[in-house]
Amino acid sequence: MSLPYAVDAEQPLQPAELAVLRDQYLNELNQGHASTQTKFNYAWGLVKSRKREDMAEGVALLTEIYRSDPPRRRECLYYLSLGHYKMGNYEEAKRFNALLMEREPHNQQAQSLNQLIEKGVAREGYIGMALMGGAAAVGGVILAGLMRRGRR
């Protein structure tokens, strides 16, 4: 099975399409057990969402599949990584993607996703440095003001 590129996850399903997947999943659950494929389809639809709570629910369903259905682990690794990436959980995204790349070092989708994750980590680092720099500057201004008062 071919995995889609990460950019494919940026295009959410239409609400009606996601509702079809949700209804199928819930109907099967109400009958006693949702099939792995139905659960997976719904999870993927949730990961594609722009809503963080949907993405989190999709990641939770994928985690259940990963734990309970070993033959599906390969594709779950990719989608778990993708879901965490979209939510900004870059360390988790890196962890799952590294597991996939360990198994399949030439997987182009995983390599592509790895580049996106690294850009996200770098962007997060730059924001953190900017916040720290801003806090240091404010602290310096406050300290300078206190020192001036102490001289008076």
The quaternary state of the protein chains shown equals single chain
Shape: elongated
SSE run: HHHHHH
What's the number of structural domains?
Answer: 1
Q: Helix coverage percent of residues?
A: over 70%
Distance between the termini: 75 Å
What structural class results from the helix and strand content? mainly alpha
3D architecture notes:
This is Mitochondrial fission 1 protein. Pfam families: Fis1_TPR_C, Fis1_TPR_N. There is one protein chain. With 152 residues, the protein is mainly alpha-helical. It has a single domain (6-151), classed as Tetratricopeptide repeat domain (Serine Threonine Protein Phosphatase 5, Tetratricopeptide repeat), CATH 1.25.40.10. It is 78% helix and 0% strand. The chain is elongated and about 80 Å long.
Topology of this protein?
Layout: H1 15-30, H2 36-47, H3 52-68, H4 73-87, H5 90-103, H6 108-151
Helix pairs in contact: 1-2, 2-3, 3-4, 4-5, 4-6, 5-6
